[in-house]
Amino acid sequence: MDKFTLFSTEHLTDFNIEARVYKHDDSGATVVKMVTLDPNMTFSILFKTPAINDKGITHIIEHSVLCGSDHYTTKEPFADLLRVSYQNFLNAFTMPDSTMYPISSMNAVDYLNLMKVYLDAVFLPRVRHDKYPFLQEGWRWEQKGCLDATSEDSFTSTSDDPHDAESNLCYQNMSSSSSQNTFSIKPDLTVNGVVFNEMKSSETDPLSICLRALRRALYTGTYQYEAGGISSEIEQLTYREVQDFYFSHYTPRNSVTVLYSPLSLLSSEFEVLDMYFTQQIKSAVKSDLKEGATSVLLGDPLERTTKIEVEYPIGEEDEIENNAILVCAWRMGVIDYETAFALNAVQKIFEAKEGNAFVEKLTDLKIAKTISVDFDTEYSDPTFVVFAKNADLKKIEEFEDLFQMELEKVGRDGFGLEKEIAAINSVEFEERECEDEWGTSKGVLLAMKIGEGFAHEKSDLFESFRIKKVVEKIKKNSKYFAELIQKFFIKNLRKVVVLCTPSQTLMKKMSDEEEKRHTERSQNFNEECIQKIMEEEKELKRLQNLEDSEIQKSTIPTLKISDIAKKGVDVTMERLESEKVRSVYYKENSTNGIVYFTYSFDISSLKLDEIVPATILSKLLKSFDTKSHSFLELNTLLEKYYGKIECKITSTSNKRINAAHDEANKVIPYFEITGKLLYENSKEALLLLGEVLSQIKFDQKTLEKKLKTMLSDAEYQMKEEPSKLLSVRIQSYLTGAGYLQDLTDGLSGYRKVQEYAEHVAQRGDVFLTELEKIYSSIFDTQKCSLYYSCEREKRDEMLSVFTDIGKCMRMGVIDEAKREEVGLPLKDVQNREIRAMDFLSLSNPRNEALVFPLKTNYVGFGFNFVALDFAMNSSFKGLCEIIEKLFLWDKVRVEGGAYGAWVTAQADGVFIFQSYRDPHITETLEVYKEIPKLVETMQLDKNTLEKFLIGIFAQIDMPRSPEAFLEFCKLCLQENTRENYYEVREKMFDVTPQSILETLKIIKEGIKHANVCVVGNRDAIEKRAYIYSDIIEVFKK
């Protein structure tokens, strides 16, 4: 404790946290202690690492430092921790000007262990004196062909000098003239590497292409560069550059550490920190880094409007017309938290999907179909970027003029008081709740706030924690937003306009250019250079396949199985009585004044051909006028009273372990309305929702317009999440729930919406009648189940408010007799009620390729083990964990160069191998097929297994936010999996190596029946066309 000096203490009232700022006396390192009673503890260390070029050096270092260190000497300590620790968050992030290494754990011993491993990784990494982590994670040459002339045994050894960049990467600078080539056949060389492949994927994303182009135009300093790297530039990065950057930036003085944990741990935390800070000072390599080199370089500001044009790739048969992206972007300058908060509110208003008058004008004038906004405070001098998607490229000037008119109007009058308050409330809600869509722990999100302030050299690290004061100040000024728009948009000359047009030939051009670049460079390699490449490839493969010794394994800290609590969390829900709806379930939780809820309407009485119209209704429910409000007014009020409200269709089935296959394929779909709001807004909020459920006025013009927007949104979602598209598609082969999900949230549903959008002008009246019929039948008290969560003292009050909405619904009677039709043979499939469907007869397993404009691939391989008379159990779950965290990590990610790979295994029998941003297809499929052999050769003893089990318990016991926990408990009821949770967790303590190996027969048998689904680019797929029964152009009109 005496090695650290306390500089300030503050109680952050909006988060009920005491924050203390310390300095380490010897090193000057900044340490922030956030005293909390949250059982989920977080450690984070962040370094200022402003990008200096497009070579991805900061990103590659982020990956490489996690590949072994002085005291934790296995090949992959990061992967080991994923397998054997009790962590619930373990990751690292590269930002435009900083790099962050956070962990979270619910166990104090594990938390301190993880802290030590991460500090060792950042201060004493193997990569500082060994280039192989760089070759694996960054980039490397490797052969596609083979050599004839020289055996691998005749290669000379490499230099041992880690700073000799020419020795390590001699092939970058050597030409064929320096030595006579003795190879009869030159090897066919290509480039591989985890970061290289990760960034290749982003280079086909249209929004990323736009952002890179406009930042080059707006900035001349740090922010003109792509911190993650651009693949063609990554290939130019040398190991010496990695070393130099690491030694100059990874110092205690250049870091901020955040400790989000109880005060009782402070002494232990300081002891660990002091050890590493002091050790780093003693062993630091002298750096030539100049003063201020770790600061963001903003460069000279642009003082004019610039127009640029770029292209993005689409499929060769994809639609070009109305597929452009029109972009207006402004550089905001260095701003404070208050301004950032207000600009976040402006973002909410601009990109609102419903009730957005500006978007309505764009669609009415056929300029564009939808709007999105990028405003990212990871930049100290951020940009505010407005994208008009699915736009007419000929109307860019019309878009600019219309947008300028809209800005001038707001600059005079503001957005309107109700809309402004709604946007302020929405941002405040998100800031206070401190959650994100990926389930990141609260401590990590708060550490990111502090890290952002440190990287941007803010004098006040807690500026962004004082939410209430900012909200009060903004609300007091009725002209606040008008003045904001005037200053940052109308009078701001630092503006770029981008026209991003689709190209059917760009994908091929990109692939050809990469191949040509690699061929031209490799053709100039002399014998010595090729020998170097071959030797490095051989050595890297040897290291990747080399099993860690027992001594190395013993360096990785882990808990004992006895440290894990015997009981898991309580996932039961309390059933409450109500005559107003069919059923009510309540879950007590500490929600900080927020109530979370889901209304779930059983729609199994719909016919199969009505499920897509029901999905459309869920997307468009807030798009129409009601009897009391225009849809513009309605959505402004919804935004004012709700933190979130959304509608979706979910498909559930009986996932109870040992349920028969035909039982597991009886599907119940639900129309769900999910939301969250403050207690004090509940009555007004529920009155509005009642209006939506009972007073909608459907009209064909709105329907026609919104269908096009819905189609556009679906296309962008698939482009942003190819892995989700792949997962849904494979599951559609395997289960009834998967079949339905493909119709509601997958490729089949997208195709159906395309048909509706194409014919709505001619048959809109028919479709409108169908929507009205479904709308009038869904919202029925006898089909409605309410699930909600709040503090105990508010339970009854919220019950009264939330069930009172029943008076806005129909009061029907469930026809239980019809439920007996389940499983009967089908004659007219589309006209049968879903609850009477035999989905087994609809399954059509096949091998598919989905053609996408991508540089990398997503490779899936799945089967249904329940259909093969197997069942989920604790041992099989353990086997899946070992396969994912050991074999897929080593073979698909580490050796193959994919960004990731995982296993999905569900109690209904769904089993999927899946890779992510993968340079391969057939090689990955071969790995999947070889999994049984790999498992059989593994030395799985009791001690090794126990370590894996710790990782499984970490996954099972992962803390969830109140919203996520309510959803989990709800699904346990709907899918009959509550007992699964208890049973699998309880029996996990009894799993043995033998019981694990016995379940390998599930995968052996499953592989015989497995189906392939690949999302990838045309060239990669067509070269392997023999694999597929169907090749589908996803975006073909």
Automatic annotation (TrEMBL):
<dbReference type="InterPro" id="IPR011249">
    <property type="entry name" value="Metalloenz_LuxS/M16"/>
</dbReference>
<dbReference type="Pfam" id="PF08367">
    <property type="entry name" value="M16C_assoc"/>
</dbReference>
<protein>
    <recommendedName>
        <fullName>Peptidase M16C associated domain-containing protein</fullName>
    </recommendedName>
</protein>
<dbReference type="Pfam" id="PF05193">
    <property type="entry name" value="Peptidase_M16_C"/>
</dbReference>
<dbReference type="GO" id="GO:0004222">
    <property type="term" value="F:metalloendopeptidase activity"/>
</dbReference>
<dbReference type="Pfam" id="PF22516">
    <property type="entry name" value="PreP_C"/>
</dbReference>
<dbReference type="GO" id="GO:0046872">
    <property type="term" value="F:metal ion binding"/>
</dbReference>
<feature type="coiled-coil region">
    <location>
        <begin position="526"/>
        <end position="553"/>
    </location>
</feature>
<dbReference type="InterPro" id="IPR055130">
    <property type="entry name" value="PreP_C"/>
</dbReference>
<dbReference type="GO" id="GO:0005759">
    <property type="term" value="C:mitochondrial matrix"/>
</dbReference>
<keyword id="KW-0175">Coiled coil</keyword>
<feature type="domain" description="Peptidase M16C associated">
    <location>
        <begin position="500"/>
        <end position="756"/>
    </location>
</feature>
<dbReference type="GO" id="GO:0016485">
    <property type="term" value="P:protein processing"/>
</dbReference>
<dbReference type="InterPro" id="IPR007863">
    <property type="entry name" value="Peptidase_M16_C"/>
</dbReference>
<dbReference type="InterPro" id="IPR013578">
    <property type="entry name" value="Peptidase_M16C_assoc"/>
</dbReference>
